[in-house]
Amino acid sequence: MLAAVTKSPGVMVIDNVAEPEPPGPQDVIIRPEAVGICGSDLHVYSGDIGALSGARSFFPRVQGHEFCAVVEEIGEDCPDGVRTGDRVAVWPLHGCGRCHPCRAGRANACVSLELVGIHRDGGLQQLLSVPASQVFGVGDLDPEPAAFIEPMSIAVHALDRAGLAAGEQVVILGAGPIGLATTVAATAAGARVMTTDPVPVRRDLALTVGAETVAWGSDGELLEATHAWTHREGPPRVIDTTGDPAALAQAVRMVCSAGRVVVVGMSAAPAPLRSGVFPEKEIDVVGSSCATAPDFLAAVRLVQAHGESVAALFSHRFPLTRAQEAIECVADPAAGAVKVLITLGGDY
Fold first, then answer.
1. Same domain for 165 and 123?
2. Which pLDDT value is given to residue 93?
3. 42 CB burial (10 A radius; 0-12, 13-18, 19+)
4. I want to staple 129 with a disulfide (CB 3.0 to 4.6 A). Which of 20, 94, 304, 342 is the partner?
5. Which long-range contacts (C-beta less than 8 Å, at least 24 apart) are formed by 247-254?
6. Predicted model pTM
7. Looking at residue 58, which CATH number applies to its domain?
8. Cβ contact 149:299 at 8 Å
């Protein structure tokens, strides 16, 4: 069967690989239909993921961690709710079950976390085997919005970490796919949203999917914009989805005293901060990693309810045979990509 295999940093080939063995008792064989490409895929493709995770070798790897698929075969001990022919979204996370986060019900922060498409082979192939516990039925959703459930789950978890309440003001830094998903989710939760981004098209998309207002400018201009929007208090919640280490300092300046900053975007670079701001404003700064199973289920429902907003985010589509081109499209600012999809089935 065909797969897009990342052989080494910056080298991806379309290759014939072995089909999966028959499913284990609690596993399913699935046939991917649509795979989203995100910043994490760029880190894997370029070899930078080791700098983020501490791992030393990811190659060769079949990438693809945000995807939907159709169930082809079912292991004999799988739950009754999993049926052949069902379209499912894949929660890519596997925790060890032994460490403190796993014991505390937070496998998304597992110290030995494994993700389909990053630590294990993922969706850029015609068939793969995954545990039945990692597939979630999506009902009659089409493949493209179903492939966006995984990034939406990241947004759901970030909002949970923020402790966001209906009617509350939140600034979302970044209007990439995760920032836009967070804008959709926050608006659906009844929050008032300001989204910031340097790219005008992305700011327009943020307004399309529910942001009350958008902004961009120098640090001083953004600080003034947020203060004007919040009547000089500063927003009680700021969520950074950018992956820019400088955004953390910006966020702690923006957020009001006794507020909370949630860091979703990843970077290996240090973030220069004045430590005195923490006791002065008594703010919380928390990280947000991946998503839990309940987050993923909530994301299924959000995408089902807001399909039109999700559809507005898809900018480019490529077949499996052009997977490398798809990743390079995401990496090229001139391409104007928002959410890039790789489609499987039909013509490869």
1. no
2. 94
3. middle
4. 20
5. 247/173, 247/174, 248/273, 248/285, 249/273, 249/274, 250/173, 250/219, 250/222, 250/223, 251/171, 251/173, 252/277, 252/278, 252/281, 252/283, 252/285, 253/219, 253/223, 253/277, 254/171, 254/222, 254/223, 254/226
6. 0.94
7. 3.90.180.10
8. yes
What does the angle CA 298 – CA 340 – CA 87 come to, to the nearest 5 degrees?
Answer: 45
- The CB density around residue 303, as the number of other CB atoms within 10 Å, is 26
Q: How many residues does the chain have?
A: 348
pLDDT at 50 over 60: no
Half-sphere exposure of 156 (CA within 13 A, CB side): 20
Question: Rounded mean pLDDT of 123-137?
Answer: 96
Say how many domains are in the chain: 2
The dihedral formed by the CA atoms of 270, 264, 144 and 322, expressed in degrees to the nearest 10:
10
The whole domain housing 47 covers: 2-148+313-343
The pLDDT tens digits for 60-91 are 999 999 999 999 999 998 988 889 999 999 99
In this structure, is residue 300 part of a structural domain? no
Strand partners, 131: 27
What residues form DSSP beta bridges with 195?
172, 214
Average pLDDT of span 240-265: 95
CB 116 within 8 A of CB 122: yes
A 10 A CB-CB count for 7 gives: 12
- Neighbouring C-beta atoms of residue 136, cutoff 10 Å: 22
Long-range pairs of 330-336 with CB within 8 A, sequence gap ≥ 24 = 330/37, 330/38, 330/39, 330/41, 330/42, 331/42, 336/199, 336/201
**One domain for residues 281 and 234:** yes
pLDDT at position 51 is 44
CA distance 318 to 326: 6
d(CA 242, CA 248): 9
Question: pLDDT by residue (tens digit) across 91-121?
Answer: 999 999 999 999 999 999 999 999 999 989 9
Reduce the DSSP state of residue 18 to 3 states and report it. coil
pLDDT of residue 52: 45
